[in-house]
Amino acid sequence: MRKNEKGFTLIEILFVLTLFLIVSSITVFMVKPHYEFIEKTLFFTCLEADLYYAQQYAISHERQVHVNFMADSHYYKIHDYVNGKIIIERPYSKIIKVREGSLKLSFKFTYDGRIDRFGSIYITIGKEIYRMTFLLGEGRFYVTKDTKE
């Protein structure tokens, strides 16, 4: 631009807009993997805390606590089995798919904190599959990344 001119040329404006579009499109592609990572971390952290809370609730109130995943609606519900009082009802992201494996999507913690059934449920987040396994006995559980199906 010359000193005596008061504006920008069309070529200068197009050049700046092109650079802006390139930088913004690169940013969009870099953010998506972080979004899935954050959703995965948030889901597993909340689910683990909620299941431990349900187990402690069952022990402290000496009642059965029912855990039910509503896979089609993308939320899970934890409630007192005797009076039906909802303890926790939590939605999760639509990129997360929960399906039954050897364990149905509905189970109970007994009054002493043990689980009434044992087995695994599968959780798919993006292209990754995780297996949440509930052990027989003390009601313990763990999550592993599934390498095969």
TrEMBL record:
InterPro entries in UniProt: ComGD (IPR016785), N_methyl_site (IPR012902), Pilin-like (IPR045584)
A biological process term (GO) from this entry: establishment of competence for transformation
Subcellular location: Cell surface
Transmembrane segment boundaries: 7-31
Record-linked SUPFAM superfamilies: Pili subunits
GO cellular component terms listed in the entry, alphabetical order: cell surface
UniProt superkingdom: Bacteria
Keywords: Competence, Membrane, Transmembrane, Transmembrane helix
Primary location class: other
Record-given protein name: ComG operon protein 4
Source species of the chain: Bacillus methanolicus (strain MGA3 / ATCC 53907)
